[in-house]
Write a structure and sequence with these properties.
Layout lengths: L1 H34 L5 H12 L1 H7 L6 H37 L4 H28 L2 E9 L8 E6 L11 H14 L3 E4 L9 H5 L2 H5 L8 E3 L3 H6 L2 H10 L2 E3 L3 E5 L3 E5 L15 H4 L9 E4 L6 H7 L3 E4 L11 H7 L5 E5 L2 E5 L17 E9 L2 H5 L1
Helix pairs in contact: 1-2, 1-4, 1-5, 3-4, 4-5
């Protein structure tokens, strides 16, 4: 297992260095052409590799670097992820165009600057549009019917926000938008299906994000579950305590019976399967659940929808996928998950996967949007059936 993990890390590093070297070489050609004799190759490569590896440097140096330096490196590195992906894709097309122009006997002194400025323009458009998609959340509405009695309730309005990723990149400004839009819905219940924080709990505490998050209001309460990033950060007890302080209950393989009418089942993230404590099978969590009443399951990663349906769940809420966050990554998430975004009916189960409110890595979204889900659940009670 260790050998496989080492090999995976080596392969990833080779890809990262290979892709960045490819981008760096093209950028060098362009800058040398534009700057002429004033271009210093050695200085260029030092600056380039600091920028290209800044996220890794922030992670490695987190304990020794000043917090401000570490945060700056992480921000630069996050944006570089987007530049790296789209820069690589653009340069593949650029090389193809350069080959055609070369065969057509066009001078390299003509096509190198021309193609370079086109790439810069396209990359700038992508980054601006992607930033808008990430920073301008939309309300995604779903209206479903659960043919069960929920006391005297005829319907329930639930606000759902997954993958907020609060930290160095997603901060109080974006969180404030979430609070304002959710409260404007006037939800009965608020559910947060994982990855509330982005790895490290320290920025959440340092920037007092709890004070902003405390303003979320719902008469039936606010419940969250753990995502893989809470496990990556390794600050789960601290995270749970921070949530408790602001009135949010984190369900870790737990079930709550809300107003004696509705069950909410909160699962630990799939990442917990590799931990000592593990996580309980959903069927075990449903032992004390009366499935004659509506049951909502929160499970961060949208695996095994069939098992949720078989266990008697009516609604399953997930996130994790970000819908790839930046196309064409959605082609990968589509292959990994039965449902990587949106809605799917699986037997009696209504499965909903959100693309998430925040972002991991670059605050950039292409082919996806930052979203909050407004879920209206309608119930069919006995009186209405008779009518």
């Amino acid at each position: 297992m260790k050998r496989r993990a080492v090999m995976s890390i080596v392969i990833i590093l080779l890809i990262v260095f290979g892709v960045n070297g490819y981008i760096g070489w093209h950028a060098q050609l362009f800058l040398a052409d534009q700057l002429g004799s004033s271009f210093h190759s050695g200085l260029y490569w030092i600056v380039f590799w600091i920028v290209a590896l800044s996220y890794l440097l922030a992670w490695i140096g987190a304990r020794v670097l000043p917090a401000s330096v570490s945060r700056l490196l992480k921000i630069v590195g996050s944006y570089w992820f987007a530049i790296m992906e789209y820069g690589f894709l653009l340069l593949l097309l650029t090389d193809l165009a350069a080959g055609v122009l070369h065969l057509a006997s066009v001078s390299s002194q003509t096509y190198i600057p021309m193609l370079g400025w086109i790439d810069i323009g396209l990359l700038l458009i992508v980054m601006l549009r992607g930033s808008y998609n990430a920073r301008s959340p939309i309300i995604r509405k779903y209206d479903i019917t659960v043919p069960k009695k929920a006391g005297d309730w005829e319907q329930l309005r639930v606000a759902v926000a997954s993958d907020i990723h609060l930290g160095s990149i997603v901060g109080n400004r974006h969180l404030r938008r979430l609070v304002e839009q959710v409260n404007r819905m006037k939800p009965d219940l608020i559910l947060l299906p994982g990855d509330v924080i982005d790895d490290d709990i320290k920025p959440f505490i340092h920037y007092d994000m709890g004070t902003t998050m405390r303003e979320l209001k719902a008469p039936l309460g606010i419940y969250a579950v753990l995502g893989n990033h809470e496990y990556i950060g390794g600050h789960i007890p601290a995270f749970v305590e921070q949530m408790k302080k602001i009135g949010i209950r984190v369900l870790m393989d737990e079930t709550v019976h809300i107003a004696e009418r509705l069950y909410v089942v909160g699962r630990k993230d799939k990442a917990a399967e590799r931990s000592v404590d593990g996580r309980k099978p959903l069927i075990a969590l449903m032992d004390n659940v009366d499935t004659r009443e509506p049951v909502i399951v929160m499970d961060h990663q949208p695996y095994h929808l069939d098992k949720a349906a078989e266990a008697g769940a009516d609604v399953m809420l997930s996130g994790h996928t970000h819908r790839g966050q930046m196309m064409p990554n959605h082609l990968i998430t589509k292959r990994l998950f039965e449902l990587d975004w949106g809605y799917l009916r699986k037997g009696n189960l209504h499965a909903i996967v959100s693309s998430g409110y925040g972002t991991w890595g670059p605050p950039i979204r292409i082919g996806s949007r930052s979203e909050i889900i407004e879920l209206t659940i309608r119930f069919i009670n006995e009186e209405r059936k008779e009518e």
